[in-house]
Amino acid sequence: MIALGCDHGGFELMQEVKAHLTQKGIEFMDFGTDSAEATDYPIYAKRVARAVLSGQCDRGILICGTGIGISITANRFKGIRCALCHDVFSAEATRQHNDANILAMGGRVVGPGLALMIVDTFLSTPFSNATRHQNRIRLMETDEI
Ligand code: RB5
Question: Is 55 in contact with 29 (CB distance < 8 Å)?
């Protein structure tokens, strides 16, 4: 189950993402926004972060105008690793290396063609499980150093 959230800057692109997921038979929960009217991106970042942390959803996708505000907000939650990706290489690498659990994109940065390739890559790439990456994620999450 994928948690989706966007503000007005990401609304149009999110419609494309939803249609794409539906066509692929991938289940999602839509945490808003539900129109192109101006709103505040932290609302949706927080809803999606909480849905992922609670286990209600496996991963999340967040879209605002740049992807920046919505990813910064999501990353304030311990246990969330939200990766802002505007290319396929980064989407693959952040799954393999960082076990990112939320993908962020900017609806004013990428077009739908590239965005959907990024989504597909993010959702289909497994974490490498390599010890060095596990260690780095643990260091990220603790006060150990
Ligand atoms: C909204 O205008 C815009 O600031 C927002 O979508 C996002 O880009 C913030 O980081």
Answer: no
Q: What is the pLDDT of residue 145?
A: 86
11 lines ligand 1 (CB under 6 A): no
Strands (E), the chain: 2-6, 28-30, 59-64, 82-84, 102-106
Predicted confidence (pLDDT) per residue in 33-83, tens digit: 999 999 999 999 999 999 999 999 999 999 999 999 999 999 999 999 999
Compute the distance between CA of residue 76 and CA of residue 41 in angstroms, rounded to an integer.
Answer: 14
Q: Please give the distance, rounded to the nearest whole angstrom, from the Cα atom of residue 142 to the centre of ligand 1.
A: 30
The chain-wide mean pLDDT, for the chain, equals 98
Question: How much distance in Å is there from the Cα of 33 to the middle of ligand 1?
Answer: 13
- The answer to pTM > 0.90 is yes
Determine which one of 8, 20, 86, 97 is catalytic. 97
Identify the three-state secondary structure at position 23: helix
Give the domains, in start order, of the chain with CATH numbers. 2-141 (3.40.1400.10)
